[in-house]
Each structure stands twice: as C-alpha cells, then as structure tokens.
Amino acid sequence: MLIQLTDQPIDVAAVLQAVQADGAGAVNSFIGTIRNQSTGRRVVRLHYEAYDAMAVHQLRRVAEQAQERWPMLQQVAVLHRKGTLEIGDVAVVVAVSTPHRAESFAACQYIIDTLKEVVPIWKKEEYEDGTVWVAAHP
Amino acid sequence: MLIQLTDQPIDVAAVLQAVQADGAGAVNSFIGTIRNQSTGRRVVRLHYEAYDAMAVHQLRRVAEQAQERWPMLQQVAVLHRKGTLEIGDVAVVVAVSTPHRAESFAACQYIIDTLKEVVPIWKKEEYEDGTVWVAAHP
Amino acid sequence: MNLSIALFGITREIVGAPTLEVALQPGQSVQQLLEQLHQTYPALGELRSLAVAVNNEYAPADALLQERDEIALIPPVSGG
Amino acid sequence: MNLSIALFGITREIVGAPTLEVALQPGQSVQQLLEQLHQTYPALGELRSLAVAVNNEYAPADALLQERDEIALIPPVSGG
Question: Which segments of the protein form a coiled coil according to its record (chains A, B) (predicted)?
C-alpha cells in the first residue's frame, strides 16, 4: 500500500508501476488535476492545506476500507499534493489493481469519493480578484 | 482523439499526458495487463491477433460513441497491443479526461466494456501444455 | 460471384488458411454464406458465436453480399 | 483543563491563528467545546459544517475531552 501526502510533484508513471502485480489484470487510476475554472470563475492557481498527521491516517483508512470491501484488491496507491499548485498540476492520484476490471473501477471510485468526504485537506482557489476556501460555506 | 493498434509497447505515461487538458479536472484510465493465470491455469504468455483495419475502425467508433454519450468528455485515448505479450505487459490502455470525476469513470468503463464486446481482436492463451483461443467456445 | 473471406483466430485455424475463396450465387445473403460455410466446416458450428463483417462493419444476417465487398468471419472477440 | 486546538483552512483565518488555547471544565464534551467556540467566533456558525477531530479521528458530539488529547477543528474538507 502506497500512501503519501507530499509537497513535491507526483510521478504518475511511478505510481502506476507501483500497483502493477502479476496476478492483477486490471489497473484503474484516477488523476485529479487543477482546472482553469471553477463554478464559472477563472482560476489562477490553488493552495492546498492539510492536517498532515490526520490526513495521512485517514488516507490509509480509506485505502484499508477499500481492501475490506474488495478483498481481491491487490495493490492500492493514494497520493495527494499539498502547497501551491498551478493549472494542470496533478493534485491527487488513486490507483488500484485487481484480477478483473469491474472491481478496479468500483474500488478506485470508492476511494476518491470517500477521500473527498473525510480526508482533512482544504483547497483555496485563487482568482484574479481574490481567493475562496472551496465548499466552506453553504 | 488518440486511437492506436500497435505491436510496440504502450507508453502509459505518454497516453496519460495526451489526455490532460486545462479544462479537465479528472482523468480516469484503465490499464489491462497480462495475468499469470486464467480460469485456474498458469499462463505463460499471450498472443493477440487483430483484424487491423476493422479493429481500428471499431476502436474509433467506440470512442466516438463515448463522446456522444458524455459530451463533456474532453480527450479520449484507446490503445491496444497485438502480437506476443509476456506476463505483466500492458495489453490495452483507455484514458479519458472530463471536467468532473463521475463522468470520467463512467466513460472509461463504457469504452473498455464495449471494446471487449465489439473490437475484432482475439487472444490465444499459452499454457505450459498447450494453447486456447479465449472465449471461442461456450 | 467469387468472394474472398478473411479469417482470424480460431476460424483461421479451423479452415487452415488466412483467407477462404467461396463461390456464391449473386445476391446471396450473409445468412446463406454462413450456412454454406457451416456445411463445409462443421467445427464453425461449435463456436460460441460467429459474425460476418462486411467492409469493417458487423453485417446483419439478411445483408446481401457483393463481389467487391471486404468480407471477414468474426469468431468471439477477446481483446482487452 | 487547558486545550490546544489546531486550526486549518478557513477556521485558521476566522480565528487568525494556527492554534487556539481554550480553558474548559474537566470532562466537557465535543458539543460543549463547539458551543463555547461558536460564542467567541460567530463566523464559525456560518460554515457548512464544523467537525472536531480527537487524536486524528472524527469525534462524536458526546465524546469527552481530555487535556492530553490532540484536538483540531475540521471545517468542510475539499481535497482531491
């Protein structure tokens, strides 16, 4: 299991390599990148802040929950950036390997969906005329 | 749109790079690799044979169908190997980018599921004591 | 009319050649081609499915064949 | 007892500091801590949600706090 919260660029190819296994015929991966717009506003860059210890603990827990739900899951990798990211930068990578493909899609989607609900990481979007903490207010 | 049927190794990192777009926040990819076993038998290697012209035509059609179903789809790549592949080799890569993540999972899964139903590519599994054309017989 | 039919995978092995020349009456259908092939090569009938492609598209059973068509037998595909 | 509460994102900006020292009666709950903080910092009440983490886990409202706990406020997360 590869779990990482990092202020360095994520090497996606290395992550995909890490989840490959001779018994796994399927690798599904999700890459979240920084978009140039959000709810109609032009985004200049993003700032990610994390509660480091809890974020790593919760990332690991999400990966473990996926392994419990999909016991055939062979390898799991979840990596998340923190700090300042520019448009196109990779913010998060989830990659899983399973013997067959349906479970690889389901497990990968479960991990990214759950990550976004429980892992204490916050992003502040920077526009040309200000900043907003995403999803903070109703 | 990147569509390829090739007898050369697939550069997964280059494929992922190819589908990134500044307006796309989500990239989902599926990588199919050669497993060391199939229905309980130990696989030594695989031989892929394709009806080249029709396979490329059908690969493109599947990608176009995905773009019709998910108009927000930004980039699509579908690459398939042919020839002899060893355990762990990448046989197929599907990668799509979309503004939001749910559609990236759905479109990628649609493409690989449909590919496996309609694209004229055949694999012959080689075991230590023989070979079998996969799925040929009931 | 004389048709040249491309063969792949297990159909190529059943017939023992990568292409098969077939003489048919003009205006015969996909269905009639398949019936003729099944009689000559009974092992084709043991396949899980057998489709015919005409000019890179799957052809329905009632499609009529023409001499200049690019025709292929498509046994169960197993890509991915 | 004196608690040191870690702040992140918008809660850090609302309070204007990365940690907050709070004096509470021993045996107070998460719920009571939140009520006290809402009185001091009304802007916390405008958030879509506000959770409390104790020792890296989300704590239920009735969880009792202890002086050596590692406590943090968790405004709506937005990772990914």
Answer: none
Q: What pTM did the predictor assign?
A: 0.95
Contact C68, C54 (CB under 8 A): no
Q: Do C46 and B121 count as a contact with CB atoms less than 8 A apart? A: no
Q: Which other chains touch chain B, taking contact as 3+ CB pairs less than 8 Å apart?
A: A, C
Q: What is the ipTM of this complex?
A: 0.94
Q: Are chains C and B touching, using the cut-off of 8 Å on CB pairs and a minimum of 3 such pairs?
A: yes
CB A89 within 8 A of CB A29: no
Domain containing residue A79: 2-133
Number of separate domains in chain A: 1
Would B25 be classed as within a structural domain?
yes
pLDDT band (50, 70, 90) for residue A40: confident
Residue that the structure tokens 């292409």 belong to: C19
Residue A23 has pLDDT above 90, yes or no: no
Residues of D in contact with A92 (CB under 8 A): 79-80
What is the C-alpha to C-alpha distance for residues C18 and C8, in angstroms, rounded to an integer? 7
Domain holding A7: CATH number? 3.90.1170.40
The three-point CA angle B111-B112-B117 to 5° equals 95
Q: Which of B12, B28, B30 sits opposite A26 (nearest CB)?
A: B30
Domain boundaries, chain D: 2-74
Subunits close to C (at least 3 CB pairs below 8 A): B
Residue A38: CB atoms within 10 Å: 17
Dump the DSSP string for D6-72. Answer: E--HHHHHHHTSSEEEEE--TT-BHHHHHHHHHHH-GGGGGSS--EEEETTEE--TTPBP-TT--EE
Q: Is the predicted pLDDT of residue D62 greater than 90, yes or no?
A: yes
- Cβ–Cβ below 8 Å for B28 and A24: no
User: Which chain A residues are closer than 8 Å to D78 by Cβ?
Assistant: 116, 121-123, 133-136
DSSP assignments along D7-21, one per residue: --HHHHHHHTSSEEE
Query: Chain A residue with minimal CA distance to B20?
Result: A88
How far B39 CA sits from the closest chain A CA (Å)?
A: 11
CB nearest to D80's CB, from A51, A116, A133: A116
Domain C2-74 superfamily per CATH? Beta-grasp domain (3.10.20.30)
Q: Is A138 a member of any domain?
A: no
Q: Is B110 domain-assigned? A: yes
Cα dihedral A11→A15→A18→A21 (10° resolution): -140
| Chain A touched by B16 (CB under 8 Å) | yes
